[in-house]
């Protein structure tokens, strides 16, 4: 028998009755029933009920022991009396009558409860994260995370991928966010950067002759937090493949995602192949390039119907309309609240009308809609009696689309029409290679400048740049972007031309991306990849609203580690060693 335990706290069953056992763990809860002390003993694996009869000389000691103290006990397994079993507990048919115990570590009064799991301010939870992690819900989330990552590794290996590690100390990245810089002691005045992603290295692995790579990769970006994005660092399943088309990457990821989500969820999952939605269609129908396909209503274009409208707020602008069924009888306060939400999103307001039983329109802008426009509007949107139609208008097409896309999500959540027991996946494809820079009016890269343009060099030479699509794609689930990816531009001449269209000469490419371009000049295979976010996948499968609930030691929203007190000032000696002088911001 081990010094501390013969069994874990989730193991004992009726088959162990009358056995002498040793258990160890934390005092989870205590109850005194008529002089008999009951203790729920907890370890990583689960709970066991311990019974301390009144005749034992140490009962009083245990009765006054603080919760979360750590003890080891020896006792005999007994069946629970009839009517007192707990079907919700794996060990719910037995209890252990203690005969001796040892105090391994006494807990002082705690700054927060582990049980019951009451509401605790997030700053307190993060400052005392070691206590927060003892709570059942978040403890299970972190175990789930481990299991999901293990499954990812297994599934990727089964598909013929090899796991390689790429550098953490590297050069500044072209990913687009701010780098975390690391000063060099050996090279005064020079800095490493923590990788925003292993993008260049994984492409260089393909150029080096490796075929299928993956890595559970830590990535570092100095950016603000969101519910689905941690400040500072995050993990992604980094993937790259050689001699593949976009379709082959999709097939590999669909195999992974359907397997993962089937293994760790009982919810309904989109079967492969996932729907493929062109970017332009996504922005029109959903007002977003990360649409939540669980929402049962979509957006339509109504620009032509209001081109000559007397309603000046719409005339000459892009107009989008969102029909929502069966809400025409909602009180005016409902529509006023939606107006206020639209204003919070930056709009002047939110125009709306309702379809009445007699077929007429009612609402603030109904008088501006002609009979002909009404007929076309109802036909185009499929709106029936009882529906409300919401409008957005803006000179910039994407601005009009985005407002109504955000309102679509808000209205759906408010009406509670989003099925929580469904995972709906899709691919967003055909992203534009270039977009018009609103300041200069010239072509600029729309997203990833290293994506292969559809049509290759011929498209770059002969098409209007704003019509060129890229082999770039996003995988989206329930309105959350899990990853972007692309077929890479591996041909130096095509890369130089793409950058030329965006206003950068070959000297810029050679200076900023010399390692990559020189590697491509030595023979590069067609290759592409993707990098699904591990934190976001676990968040979805754990049914959590923020990724901080699935990360063991997350930072706060303003990028502070309250547990380890980071960031913190460096000592003068540390700064001298890396040749750094602090220049504090000037207060105005």
Brief digest:
The chain is an alpha+beta fold and 588 residues long. Helices cover 27% and strands 23% of the residues.
Largest sheet, spatial ordering of strands:
6-9-10-24-23-22-19-12
Runs in which pLDDT lies below 50 for 5 or more consecutive residues are none
Percent helix, as a range, is 25-40%
- What kind of sheet is the major sheet? 8 strands, mixed
Secondary-structure content class: alpha+beta
Number of helices: 16
Net shape: globular
Average predicted confidence as pLDDT = 94
Q: Tell me the number of strands.
A: 24
Distance between the termini: 69 Å
Strand content: 15-25%
Radius of gyration: 30 Å
Characterise this structure:
There is one protein chain. About 25% of the residues lie in helices and about 25% in strands. The chain has helices at about 60-65, 120-125, 130, 135-160, 200-205, 245-265, 280-285, 330-345, 370-380, 395-415, 455-460, 490-500, 505-510, 515-520, 535-540, 570-575, and strands at about 20-35, 35-40, 45-50, 70-80, 95-105, 160-165, 180-185, 190-195, 210-220, 230-240, 270, 275-280, 300, 320-325, 350-355, 360, 390-395, 420-425, 425-430, 435, 445, 470-475, 480-485, 525-530. It has an 8-stranded mixed β-sheet, sandwiched between helices. Strands 1-2-3-5-4 form a 5-stranded mixed beta barrel. Helix 4 packs antiparallel against helix 6 and helix 11 (about 455-460) runs parallel beside helix 12. The protein is globular.
């Amino acid at each position: 028998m081990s010094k501390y335990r013969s069994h874990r706290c989730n193991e004992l069953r009726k088959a162990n009755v009358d056995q002498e056992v040793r258990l160890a763990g934390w005092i989870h809860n205590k109850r005194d029933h008529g002089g008999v002390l009951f203790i729920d003993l907890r370890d990583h694996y689960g709970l066991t009920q311990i019974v301390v009869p009144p005749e034992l000389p140490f009962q009083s000691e245990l009765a006054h022991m603080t919760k979360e103290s750590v003890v080891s006990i020896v006792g005999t397994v007994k069946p629970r009396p009839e009517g007192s079993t707990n079907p919700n507990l794996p060990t719910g048919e037995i209890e252990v009558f203690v005969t001796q115990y040892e105090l391994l570590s006494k807990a002082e009064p705690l700054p927060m409860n582990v049980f019951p799991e009451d509401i605790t301010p997030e700053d307190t939870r993060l400052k005392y994260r070691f206590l927060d992690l003892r709570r059942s819900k978040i403890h299970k989330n972190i175990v789930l995370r481990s299991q999901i990552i293990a499954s990812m590794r297994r599934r990727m290996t089964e598909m013929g991928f090899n796991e390689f590690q790429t550098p953490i100390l590297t050069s500044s990245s072209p990913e687009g966010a701010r780098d975390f810089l690391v000063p060099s002691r050996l090279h005064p005045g020079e800095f490493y950067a923590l990788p925003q992603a292993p993008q260049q290295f994984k492409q260089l692995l393909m150029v080096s002759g490796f075929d299928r790579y993956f890595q559970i990769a830590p990535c570092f970006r100095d950016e603000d937090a969101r519910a689905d994005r941690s400040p500072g660092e995050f993990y992604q399943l980094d993937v790259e493949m050689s001699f593949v088309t976009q379709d082959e990457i999709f097939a590999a990821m669909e195999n992974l995602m359907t397997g993962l989500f089937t293994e760790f969820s009982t919810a309904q999952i989109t079967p492969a192949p996932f729907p493929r939605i062109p970017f332009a269609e996504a922005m029109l129908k959903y007002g977003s390039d990360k649409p939540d396909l669980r929402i049962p209503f979509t957006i339509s274009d109504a620009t032509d119907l209001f081109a000559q409208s007397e309603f000046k707020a719409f005339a000459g602008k892009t107009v989008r309309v969102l029909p929502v069924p069966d809400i025409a009888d909602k009180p005016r306060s409902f529509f006023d609240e939606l107006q206020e939400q639209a204003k919070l999103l930056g709009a002047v307001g939110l125009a709306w009308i309702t379809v009445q039983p007699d077929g007429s329109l009612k609402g603030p802008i109904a008088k501006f809609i002609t009979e002909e426009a009404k007929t076309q509007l109802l036909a185009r949107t499929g709106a029936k009696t009882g529906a409300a139609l919401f409008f957005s208008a803006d000179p910039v097409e994407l601005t009009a689309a985005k407002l109504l896309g955000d309102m679509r999500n808000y209205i759906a959540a408010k009406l509670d029409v989003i099925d929580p027991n469904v995972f709906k996946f899709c691919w967003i494809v055909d992203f534009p290679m270039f977009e018009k820079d609103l300041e200069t009016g010239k072509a600029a890269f729309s997203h990833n400048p290293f994506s292969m343009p559809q049509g290759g060099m011929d498209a770059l030479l002969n098409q209007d740049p704003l019509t060129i699509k890229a082999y770039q794609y996003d995988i989206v689930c329930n309105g959350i972007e899990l990853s972007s990816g692309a077929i890479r531009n591996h041909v130096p001449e095509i890369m130089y031309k793409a950058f030329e269209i965006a206003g950068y000469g070959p000297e810029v490419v050679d200076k900023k991306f010399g390692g990559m371009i020189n590697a491509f000049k030595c023979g590069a295979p067609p290759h592409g990849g993707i990098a699904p976010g591990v934190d976001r996948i676990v968040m979805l499968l754990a049914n959590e609203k923020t990724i901080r609930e699935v990360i063991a030691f997350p930072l706060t929203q303003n990028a502070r580690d309250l547990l380890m007190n980071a960031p913190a000032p460096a000592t003068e000696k540390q700064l001298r060693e890396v040749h750094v002088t602090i220049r504090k911001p000037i207060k105005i």
